[in-house]
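User: Structure please.
Assistant: Input sequence and predicted structure:
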Amino acid sequence: MSETHAVVSARGAKRWADGHPWIFRSDVVQSPVGQACVVDVRDPRGRAIGTALWSSASEIALRLLDSALDTKIDAVWWHERLARAIARRTAVAPVATAYRLVHGEGDGLPSLIVDRYDRWLVVQLLSAGLETFRAEIVSALVKLTGCAGIIARNDASVRVREGLSRNVEVLYGEVPDEVTVEENGVKYVAALRTGQKTGAFLDQRENRALVASVARGRALDLFSYHGSFALHLARGASAVTSVDSSGPALARGQQNAALNLATNIEFVEADAFEFIRAEVQAGRRYETIVVDPPAFAKNRASLAGATRGYRDLNLHAMRLLAPGGLLFTASCSYHLTKPLFLDMLRDAGAASGRRLILRGLTAQPLDHPELVTVPETGYLKGALLEALD
């Protein structure tokens, strides 16, 4: 047993028993000593139910590390748990040099994100309790991966709620600002210090491969960012229009296009909503369309407005499809659940006046595991639709 422990309510204990690793502050009956540490957790009867990370400032007060009794959370524990997570990615390595090594709760390592970009790792330590094990985590990652450097992208806003500072810092070795990576034969530059998420959108890898396999004719990529979908579309489409509101993002997209000798991509700086409405009014048609917007629903309160935004985008995209055309559409909003996502598509489809076939539904890739008992580990959903007429 550790020197400190927490006692939780029956509701909190049941949450662990039901497979969810979080216990909220409101279910902590007796708090441990200290602001952030690892603690043994007991139910109202005093029975030990597991070992957890404790964060005194967080609404998520306890994050389960191990349900085995009297577990010692030390360097050996971190090495073994990280080794198991990394081993699950064996199938990804042959097709990509950038992928996620650790997906937090999805890998039984709550609040820890580790992404690999070729020979370098980007980590996010997203809870105060986890921060106390920074040295053990870095040491294990170096030994397990042989990486050339590790950088912490601890600039996520969630750290503020943990009472932690926001910063970007090198934890091991030397880390370049940019790294050229490859997935399924397509190269792109990842900005490790300044790029979205940890440098690139790694969670769409399998969807980009899907799009590459079906792309044809004139193609449209909305919210293109650095052009990852556009680069894959360009392998099968005759011409690709890549639209984003950010000039710097499009400049990086052009750099990526040159890296792949892709000469059939036109980069357009425009608001995606305004662009797609204008295209519909002009009567244009596309054989392949990708709609991959940012998360419109940042919280539950914004869900209604976000759903209207998703519906509007997809309605216009459906109207732009040529007969037999294909639309891949996605949402990374956690609050827009899979059922709500499908409801939105049905509503947009009915309003579009088009007959649409659902060719397939997609979720997160192998390296972003979604636990069925932890809905927070899942956020990405996609659909491939075909216009019959």
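The CA atoms of residues 55 and 97 lie 34 Å apart.
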